[in-house]
Design a protein that fits this description.
Jelly Rolls; mainly beta; six-stranded antiparallel sheet; 45% strand
Amino acid sequence: MPKIDPPAWREGEGGGNAVFGAGNGPYADVPLGDAAGLTQFGVRLERLAPGSRSSYRHRHETEDEFVYLLSGELLLIEDEETLLRAGDAAAWSAGAPVAHCLENRSSSDATVLVVGARRPSDRVHYPDHDIVMHRDGTDCRFTRPDGSPVSSGS
């Protein structure tokens, strides 16, 4: 296996769109798995600035997820909140009923290694928004848990 030459950090503002509304704050990531040509699972570094979240609280039906905190402190938000420090890890198996996200409530950046499956199809539940994202290849649509459609801005 050749040594990977990681790409530069990609800076961004996370998550705001017509379906969910406000974003999750500034973040940066390095797509390590893409740089290595991985196709079965994704690996990336993510840097969360103070006040930022990794995502909206969510859970996957068909994808495993794993995070390992490299530096800083993050709050793991599930049904309860758990403080994660450098060296701590968390994981969710596909279909686990617990929605989750990470939030940086500290005054310093935090860096986390994120590993997850790359299934072409998945249903992702966002319980705080009462939304389900249906992903099938490049097609993506949003519904309510009962299957009714979600319109932009709702």
